[in-house]
């Protein structure tokens, strides 16, 4: 079931009935590259409306992931998107989350930074958890069935995810 909450940003929370166990693990972290594996109930997609942008109607895409210590890791995409493009991106990624039970996420950054608690996010029905201050650049998301979304080419170009992220392939 999909829940929507509107405020200064559009949030999409996904909760899958029948999901056996909730999990998160780091598959790989080295040289600024990270690969994660999580269940869909630990992932929150967001289009943050940028009210102070030079041009009206822009959004920033973010993905929040509830980690093994129940703090929230954030993945961001550096470029801004028009509101409709960001909403389409969330819709396509929501379909990947809805169909899969094992979600693989690729990002650029360092997961070894110390945790610094910040703003809280609600993961339905898990609860509300604090952001840990760790941020990765979003690269790609995929499920165990090979459905994938690349931050820069969407679903169109192959391979998805781009190298050097093998993600679900052979893991």
What's a quick, concise take on this entry?
The protein has 171 residues and is mainly beta.
Note down, in words, how this protein is organized:
- With 171 residues, the protein is mainly beta.
- The protein has one domain (2-150).
- Helices cover 10% and strands 45% of the residues.
- The protein contains 1 helix and 12 strands.
- The chain has one helix spanning 83-99, and strands at 2-6, 9-14, 24-30, 33-38, 43-49, 58-66, 72-76, 81-82, 103-108, 120-123, 127-143, 148-150.
- Strands 1, 2, 3, 4, 5, 6, 7, 8, 9, 10, 11 and 12 form a 12-stranded mixed sheet that branches.
- The relative contact order is 0.19.
- Mean pLDDT is 82; it is low at 1-19.
């Amino acid at each position: 079931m999909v829940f929507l909450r509107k405020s200064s940003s559009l949030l999409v929370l996904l909760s899958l009935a029948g999901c056996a166990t909730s999990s998160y693990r780091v598959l790989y972290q080295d040289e600024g590259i990270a690969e994660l594996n999580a269940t869909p109930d630990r992932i929150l997609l967001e289009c943050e409306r940028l009210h102070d942008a030079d041009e009206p109607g822009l959004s920033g895409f973010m993905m929040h992931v509830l980690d093994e210590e129940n703090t929230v890791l954030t993945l961001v995409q550096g470029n801004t998107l028009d509101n409709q493009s960001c909403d389409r991106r969330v819709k396509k990624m929501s379909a990947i989350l809805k169909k899969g039970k094992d979600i693989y996420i690729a990002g650029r950054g360092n997961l070894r930074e110390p945790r610094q608690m910040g703003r809280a996010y609600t993961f339905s029905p898990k609860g509300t958890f604090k952001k840990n201050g760790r941020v990765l650049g979003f690269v790609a998301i995929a499920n165990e069935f090979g459905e994938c979304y690349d931050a820069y080419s969407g679903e169109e170009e192959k391979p998805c995810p781009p190298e050097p992220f093998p993600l679900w392939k052979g893991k």
